[in-house]
Specification:
The protein is an alpha/beta fold and 329 residues long. The protein has two domains: 177 residues, Rossmann fold (3-Layer(aba) Sandwich), CATH 3.40.50; 84 residues, no CATH class. The chain is 51% helix and 11% strand. The protein has 14 helices and ten strands. The strands form three sheets. A six-stranded parallel β-sheet has the order 3-2-6-7-1-8, sandwiched between helices. The chain has a two-stranded parallel sheet with strand order 4-5. Helix 11 links the parallel strand 6 and strand 7. Helix 4 crosses helix 9 and helix 9 crosses helix 10. The protein is globular, with a radius of gyration of 22 Å. The chain starts with 8 loop residues before the first helix and ends with a strand.
């Protein structure tokens, strides 16, 4: 890589990290997208990594498109062979090829939240609901049920896992509610299979199921993707993290970029837990902190830092002792 004088030492360290797990803590305005793009460029041009051997995953479509545009400029040839996508788009691509291996139709139809509600309404009397189907308004809790099912998928909890957990609990009125929820969750999964549809949460959970039960398919993708990069890591959920860890395999060439202060799911502790989960899975991971800010003046950064410390006492700075105070450049 030709030395770029606009890059600071921390950015260069992240870009030139070759093998093994890497955690990049990137504050706002510290050039994280530049680092990801330059890292891809470095791997291909300097280390002769094929574009097809790099997988870049993001949390949002916006971030995915931005990364594609940046790589398009940096790599005018061959970049289209790279897999740059959101987690959901990646899993959709996998399942279209290999869903049959776990007994699912690769021609499934992806349904929206509104269509999911309609599916429940259409089959409400098959859901075995009592507590959550009041006589005066039998569809009252359908929205809440779908949110609950989605959160279970986010946490990598299957209907079988849920039922097993409930059976281990002491019988109470609350346990009966959970049992009804678990049975409804199981029925909802069966309905989707019967109808040949999946919702967005299924894309992640079914890909996890595929990789965990069909090791030959997992190995195929592990051998293809020699380097994995995950942007917006602070906003991924537990199931998505598990997916990334599985793909990293024995080589463990995985790079994640995170900033707990920018998490849209901070209210449920996702940002810090994601990073802690990564460090637990990869205890020897190299950590690079980007804290040179190129957008704001120091007084603005200092004021923002004070507010963040006040509003969020459970930050990585406290939990992990990482210095994240931004410096204006």
């Amino acid at each position: 890589m030709a030395e770029n004088k606009t890059l600071n030492p921390q950015q260069i360290a992240a870009i030139k990290h070759l093998t093994g797990p890497l955690l990049i803590i990137a504050g706002a305005g510290t050039g994280k997208t530049t680092v990801i793009t330059e890292r891809i460029k470095y791997l291909i041009l300097e280390k002769n990594v094929l574009p097809t051997q790099i997988l870049a995953l993001t949390f949002t479509d916006k971030a995915s498109h931005e990364m594609e545009e940046r790589v398009d400029v940096a790599m005018p040839y061959g970049y289209t062979q790279m897999w740059i996508s959101t987690f959901h788009a990646f899993c959709d691509r996998i399942l279209r090829n290999d869903a049959h291996a776990i007994g699912l139709d690769p021609g499934y139809r992806l349904i929206s939240e509104a269509e999911s509600i309609l599916l429940l309404k259409k089959n409400i009397f098959e859901m075995e609901l009592n507590i959550f189907r009041p006589l005066g308004n039998p569809t009252k809790f359908l929205d809440a049920l779908l949110i609950h099912f989605s959160r279970l998928k986010d946490e990598d909890v299957s209907p079988t896992d849920y039922l097993k957990w409930i059976k281990q609990q002491k019988i109470t009125g609350e346990t009966e509610q959970y049992l009804e929820l678990a049975n409804a969750y199981k029925k909802y999964e069966e309905l989707k299979i019967k109808e040949g549809v999946m919702d967005f949460s299924d894309l992640i959970s079914n890909t996890l199921l595929l990789f965990r039960t069909r090791k030959n398919i997992l190995k195929k993708y592990q051998e293809q993707f020699k380097f994995i990069l995950v942007d917006e890591f602070q906003d991924t959920n537990y199931a998505q993290n598990e997916l990334a860890i599985l793909l990293a395999g024995d080589d463990k060439n995985i790079t994640v970029v995170a900033d707990d202060d920018q998490s849209i799911y901070r209210f449920r502790g996702a940002a810090v837990s994601n990073v802690l989960q990564f460090k637990k899975s990869f205890p020897k991971a190299k950590v690079v902190t980007l804290n040179n800010n190129y957008r704001s003046t120091q007084p603005i950064l200092d004021a923002a830092y004070a507010l963040i410390q006040h509003n969020n006492p459970n930050r990585l700075e406290i939990v992990e002792g990482i210095d994240k105070k931004l410096k204006s450049h």
